[in-house]
Amino acid sequence: IRRNPGEPEFHQAVHEVAQHIIPFVEKNPKYEAAQILQRLTEPDRIVSFRVCWEDDQGQVRTQRGYRVQHSNAIGPYKGGIRFHDNVTQSILKFLAFEQTFKNSLTGLPMGGGKGGSDFNPKGKSDREIMRFCQAFMTELSRHIGPFTDVPAGDIGVGGREISYMFGQYKRIRNEFTGVLTGKGLAFGGSEIRVEATGYGVVYFMEDMLNHKGLKFEGKVCCVSGSGNVAQYAVEKITTLGGKVVTVSDSSGTVHDSEGINAEKLAHIKELKEVKRARISDYILKYPHAEFIAGRRPWHIPCDLAFPCATQNEINAEEAAMLVANGCIGVSEGANMPSEKGAIDVFQNARILFAPSKAANAGGVAVSGLEMTQNSMRLSWSRDELNQRLRTIMGDIHKRCVQYGADEDGHIDYLKGANVGGFVKVADAMLAYGVI
Ligand code: NDP
């Protein structure tokens, strides 16, 4: 805490991992002797830089940009870029730390990193977004590269922003390489990347249910968020026979007890991606639904919960409400959406709980496959990629079971993901010696 003052999110993430790694390394002294966990709590490096851009009124604006390169022990740094006005070094450090374990869990050769800016994209014109992205990449370009660090999207950074940044990198470096993932299909992007995180979160839930002999079909589901991850989680839940009754954004929650079907989901996509409107507009078209301003969805009864908006969006009280209302499973689409108190509630109730570093790893896994395709200069088909995503999520589930099974057969997925993600990175670090 003395070394990282004022970084509560980073402390939270390290604590969540350390609680399982400390007992594990005590039983495996080679890791302890080499101080692997201690070394992993210090990022390889953090760069922070000024980003100046001009708004539509010709006024000069100044933002802060960052890239946290956490660990490249098992591959180039890899992790998204976030544009949100609440971005701080603490948030990016927690995300980069988590990313290292998550990327290891995928089985693909990727290290962990994260970046972003306190730039707020809400209400900005398309030209302003373009100017900001270009200014951001002008500086970032000197720190990344296809063999060094390969960023992707995250909150506030979707296909549009990745395209502006990729175009600027290409122009500055005079090279066409797979330096970013989440690119458009016309210039090196991968099929299934847009869908991958949301689909993966649902595949992981399916695997947890199947492991217990339960079925997805007929389950009532609460989803939070209405961005990239939430949209494709809703789509996959519906395809598997579940019924989604909520979506949300930072202004509040939509509760549609009739269920959000494909037509309603298409409308949500139109609202958020094209009109860049608020989710409250949903009830203008579907007046039978209810909009609950300023509230998150967790008081609404459901069988399964999918937090897909942002960090710390479920507190202990909300977790208790979910459990009391009969929720039997939580699969985290967002990164660290459950506060520590909420995780304690889920674990004490022994419901199925999939932590983000396992459940939402499908996005970065398909990003890894995008890097593979770029290196080979060819593209795989949609079916092939969906199949690979399904297999990777199944393998992550198996790894969690391997490292997370308690003596009584209960699976502690949090422990399984933490230890399962740690081992490969730790073995690589041991092999390199003290560096
Ligand atoms: P988007 O920007 O597409 O969507 C974010 C959604 O969350 C929006 O509905 C947004 O509402 C809501 N939201 C954001 N911040 C807050 C907040 N402070 N309070 C309440 N609601 C908020 O982002 P993504 O869907 O890509 O990301 C969502 C989560 O998933 C993040 O935690 C991200 O790190 C994680 N993730 C994403 C991956 C990906 O592939 N995209 C991969 C792995 C993890 P509003 O529009 O009002 O801001």
TrEMBL record:
Keyword NAD found: yes
Binding-site residues for NAD(+), renumbered to this chain: 197, 228
Important for catalysis (site feature) positions: 154
Keywords: NAD, Nucleotide-binding, Oxidoreductase
Start and end residues of each Glutamate/phenylalanine/leucine/valine/L-tryptophan dehydrogenase C-terminal domain: 190-433
Active site: 114 (proton donor)
GO cellular component, one term: cytosol
SUPFAM superfamilies noted in UniProt: Aminoacid dehydrogenase-like, N-terminal domain (SSF53223), NAD(P)-binding Rossmann-fold domains (SSF51735)
Binding residues annotated for substrate, in chain numbering: 78, 99, 102, 153, 367
Residues annotated as signal peptide: none
SUBUNIT field: Homohexamer.
Protein name in the entry: Glutamate dehydrogenase
